[in-house]
Design a protein that fits this description.
By secondary structure, chain A is mainly beta. Chain A is built from no helices and eleven strands. In chain B, about 0% of the residues lie in helices and about 55% in strands. In chain B, strands 2, 4, 5, 6, 9, 10 and 11 form a seven-stranded mixed β-sheet that branches. In chain B, a hairpin with a 3-residue loop joins strand 4 and strand 5. The radius of gyration of chain B is 14 Å and the shape is globular. The chains are: A mainly beta (about 110), B mainly beta (about 120).
Chain lengths: ~110, ~120
């Protein structure tokens, strides 16, 4: 079983839709979780990070962690074509980060 | 504010040729530095990381090497490129201490094609 699993998609939604992106993990020692956004042919940029179980909101983005289920989610409200990108989850293991493979999202106008 | 630079942005090299990719960070001191390779369908693969000048840790055995000659400079090298070295190479940095997240900040990347 891989340490971090993420559905690669692609995921295509209409503009204005609510998007749900998810990752599961197997190591219960993971405590710090992050989401990165990567536009085509660019480096990933840090979008959100969260520690505890529950929700963290930042504008149209909400990060959710369920440690009991080893499941993290990123919700995007009122999705825009500019949200079209690949989204990678990441979690800290010792001194480094473990990344999911990324979910490619396309928001159609 | 901190910025991270990588060059070149794009590179096409023949098999067997040498490689040198450079990464520099501005606006911070003593950062942790990382080299990743991103191949289609394989996600981000950590190649090397460094916690200080001359200190390099390798995550996977391969045809590549890394060096850190200065505090904010990280170089990825190869003596002889293989076809399998093609990919998108990303440099990243993180603060040396302070944040428990160890959040990493990425450069713009170098797209390497080996023919």
């Amino acid at each position: 079983q891989k340490e971090v699993e993420q559905d690669p998609g692609p995921l295509s939604v209409p503009e204005g839709a609510i998007v749900s992106l998810n990752c599961t993990y197997s190591n219960s020692a993971f405590q710090y979780f992050m989401w990165y956004r990567q536009y085509s042919r660019k480096g990933p940029e840090l979008l959100m990070y969260t520690y505890s179980s529950g929700n963290k909101e930042d504008g149209r983005f909400t990060a959710q962690v369920d440690k009991s289920s080893k499941y993290i989610s990123l919700f995007i409200r009122d999705s825009q074509p500019s949200d079209s990108a690949t989204y990678l989850c990441a979690m800290r293991r010792q001194g480094n980060l473990i990344f999911g493979k990324g979910t490619k999202l396309s928001v159609k106008p | 504010s901190q910025t991270i630079h990588q060059w070149p942005a794009t590179l096409v090299q023949p098999v067997g040729s040498p490689l040198s990719l450079e990464c520099t960070v501005e606006g911070t001191s003593n950062p942790n530095l990382y080299w990743y390779r991103q191949a289609a369908g394989r996600g981000l693969q950590l190649l090397f990381y460094s916690v200080g000048i001359g200190q390099i840790s390798s995550e996977v055995p391969q045809n590549l090497s890394a060096s850190r000659p200065q505090d904010r400079q990280f170089i990825l090298s190869s003596k002889k490129l293989l076809l399998s070295d093609s990919g998108f190479y990303l440099c990243a940095w993180s603060p040396h201490s302070g944040s428990p997240y160890n959040e990493q900040f990425f450069g713009p990347g170098t797209r390497l094609t080996v023919l």
